[in-house]
Design goal:
Helix content of chain B: under 10%
Helix content of chain A: under 10%
Largest sheet of chain B: 6 strands, mixed
Order of helices and strands of chain B: EEEEEEEEEE
Low-confidence stretches of chain A: none
Largest sheet of chain A: 6 strands, mixed
Strand content of chain B: 35-45%
Number of strands of chain A: 11
Distance between the termini of chain A: 36 Å
Low-confidence stretches of chain B: none
Oligomer: heterodimer
Order of helices and strands of chain A: EEEEEEEEEEE
Shape of chain A: globular
Shape of chain B: globular
Distance between the termini of chain B: 37 Å
Radius of gyration of chain A: 13 Å
């Protein structure tokens, strides 16, 4: 079992709709959770971080964390073509930050 | 301010040669990470430096890989006797170390390594 699992996609969402990205992790002692966006040929950039159970909202983005289910998700409201990218879930455990393999999101006009 | 920089941006080498990749973190960032990203894959953790603590080398795939860091500044990742499977983008990231887990990583542009 991978430490951080994501559906590789591609996930195709119409422009203006809500995109929902999911991630599960295996280690219950994980402390912090991150969502990164990576455009093709570019480095990852941080979108959201979340540390406590519940929802955290930042503009069009909402991160959701459920530690009991070992599940973290990212919702993107009013999806735009510029949101088309690979979204990486990352989990911090002790000194390590472990990344999932990413979900490719495509926003269709 | 300046972000994380990496050099070279691209490196093409022959199988069996040694390569050295460099990372300059953001000034003041005590934590530094190296990752490998193969084409179409996620980020694979290699090594983590935090201040003067012993580095976490648990992600290094073989003894051909090593990394050094001078204090809280520059880091070099060395790959000896390169193999074709070493071809990947090598990413460096740095962060302030808060101790609370709330450490935002800032990534460099990466070094694309191609082993012929």
């Amino acid at each position: 079992q991978k430490e951080v699992e994501q559906n590789s996609g591609p996930l195709s969402v119409p422009e203006g709709a809500i995109a929902s990205l999911n991630c599960t992790y295996s280690d219950r002692v994980s402390q912090s959770f991150f969502w990164y966006r990576q455009y093709s040929g570019k480095s990852p950039e941080l979108i959201m971080s979340i540390y406590s159970n519940g929802d955290k909202e930042d503009g069009r983005f909402t991160a959701q964390l459920n530690k009991a289910s070992q599940y973290v998700s990212l919702l993107i409201r009013d999806s735009q073509p510029s949101d088309s990218a690979t979204y990486l879930c990352a989990v911090k455990r002790a000194s390590k930050i472990i990344f999932g393999s990413g979900t490719r999101l495509s926003i269709r006009p | 301010g300046a972000g994380v920089s990496q050099s070279p941006s691209n490196k093409v080498t022959e199988k069996g040669k040694d390569v050295e990749l460099r990372c300059d973190p953001i000034s003041g960032h005590t934590a530094l990470y190296w990752y490998r990203q193969r084409l179409g894959q996620g980020l694979e953790f290699l090594i983590y430096f935090q201040g003067n603590s012993a580095p976490d080398k648990s992600g290094l795939p073989s003894d051909r890989f090593s990394a050094e860091r001078t204090g809280e500044s520059v880091s070099t990742l060395t790959i000896q006797r390169t193999q074709q499977e070493d071809s990947a983008v090598y990413l460096c990231a740095s962060s302030l170390y808060s101790g609370s887990g709330a450490d935002t990583q800032y990534f460099g542009p990466g070094t694309r390594l191609t082993v012929l």
